[in-house]
Structure to design on (397 residues):
């Protein structure tokens, strides 16, 4: 049974600077994201789901253009309402402002009786398939809100490095209390956080930044049967109780190989399943022509035979002056059927100094040294090191 459908990180309203409709201002690429979101809603309708949950970042920012709100209303919110399906919208780090009292684009949907917008931790009970289903909903908490939470609950200031630890204790206690009070047959935690041990593939839309709150697995009481998270765009199971939906469509190049889709929950069996959605193909081609007599031919040989409807990113490493000898018209002709193409020119990885001496830079080593020297006591040191290393490896190839 597909009783509950969970979608995360849709990012409606994201700005892509290509293939933009001059009348609506909407990129065709943004429509890829919207179509998969609408597909998830249609799946819920066709399979007679009882609840449709968006686990944060429905919108790419707190306030998006009316055209995006209207698309969500027309293709998701209202069809779900007509089918009698309740909708739960959690605030994420992108669509939830740092001052949670401020109105956002999410609040536009509060007028619908079947929609609940969650901007602060809340707990609910719903009857689904003859079972009492408990829902502990945890929207994203900005670092500034962590400070306010600790001061409000403990009535005192703590050193910055202790704030996350204290906040985790407070939230752990709150979750445990809700778990005891709800008295349910199936208890689900829904959240928008980076969870300890989660793999991060996205490079721009999941920000592991200093003081970003980390959800520790020890915060889950035994009574919670399943925890479903948004925030990380890569679908993955952390353990047998913790799973990420992942984003319904690829958003940046760090996600180019990831499967995309949504989760469905079976209340009676207390299980989840992943439904994959069609995602735009992303092709990254890297070619070094520094030793090639005919760089144009070498680049053409490196291109795949089929690029139709794909996003293509071509990175060419060339010596100074070689670019002038490349027939770029032939390259663009070969990539003409791509949905969108980007061509980057990189110099060889060497630097000439002090009268002609050459040495090879080691960006990864420099970054590791920087982290060791400057972030020794930082609570997210390992996560920052991991993400920074991943970004450098993608950039450097």
């Amino acid at each position: 049974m597909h009783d509950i459908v969970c979608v995360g990180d849709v990012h409606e309203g994201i700005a892509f600077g290509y293939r933009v409709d001059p009348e609506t201002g909407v990129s065709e690429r943004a429509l890829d994201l919207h179509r998969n979101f609408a597909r998830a809603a249609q799946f819920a309708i066709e399979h007679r789901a009882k609840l449709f949950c968006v686990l944060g970042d429905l919108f790419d920012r707190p306030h998006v253009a009316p055209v995006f709100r209207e698309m969500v209303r027309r293709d998701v919110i209202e069809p779900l309402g007509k089918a009698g399906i309740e909708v739960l919208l959690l605030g994420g780090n992108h669509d939830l402002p740092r001052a949670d009292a401020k109105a956002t684009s999410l609040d536009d949907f509060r007028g619908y009786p079947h929609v609940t917008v969650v901007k602060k931790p809340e707990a609910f009970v719903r009857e689904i398939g003859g079972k009492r289903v408990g829902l502990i909903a945890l929207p994203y908490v900005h670092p500034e809100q962590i400070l306010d939470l600790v001061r409000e609950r403990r009535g005192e200031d703590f050193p910055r490095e202790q704030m996350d630890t204290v906040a985790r204790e407070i939230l752990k206690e709150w979750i445990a209390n809700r778990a005891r009070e709800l008295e349910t047959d199936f208890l689900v935690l829904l959240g928008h956080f980076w969870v300890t041990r989660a793999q991060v593939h996205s490079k721009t839309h999941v920000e592991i930044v200093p003081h970003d709150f980390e959800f520790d697995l020890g915060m889950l009481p035994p009574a919670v049967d399943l925890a479903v998270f948004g925030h990380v765009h890569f679908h993955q199971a952390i353990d047998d109780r913790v799973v990420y939906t992942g984003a319904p469509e690829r958003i940046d190049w760090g996600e180019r190989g990831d499967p995309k889709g949504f989760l469905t929950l079976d209340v009676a069996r207390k299980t989840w399943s992943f439904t994959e959605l069609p995602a735009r193909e992303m092709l990254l081609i890297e070619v070094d022509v520094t030793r090639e007599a005919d760089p144009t031919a070498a680049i053409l040989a490196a291109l795949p035979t089929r690029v139709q409807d794909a996003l293509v990113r071509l990175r060419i490493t060339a010596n100074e002056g070689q670019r002038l000898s490349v027939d770029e018209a032939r390259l663009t002709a070969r990539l003409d059927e791509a949905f969108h193409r980007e061509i980057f020119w990189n110099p060889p990885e060497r630097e000439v100094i002090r009268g002609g001496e050459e040495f090879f830079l080691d960006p990864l080593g420099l970054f590791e040294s920087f982290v060791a020297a400057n972030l020794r006591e930082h609570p997210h040191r390992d996560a920052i090191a991991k993400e920074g290393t991943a970004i450098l490896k993608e950039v450097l190839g």
Residues 160-182 form the longest helix (23 residues). The CA atoms of residues 312 and 341 lie 5 Å apart. The helical segments are 28-46, 66-82, 143-154, 160-182, 295-302, 328-334, 363-374, 381-396. Residues 351-397 form one domain.
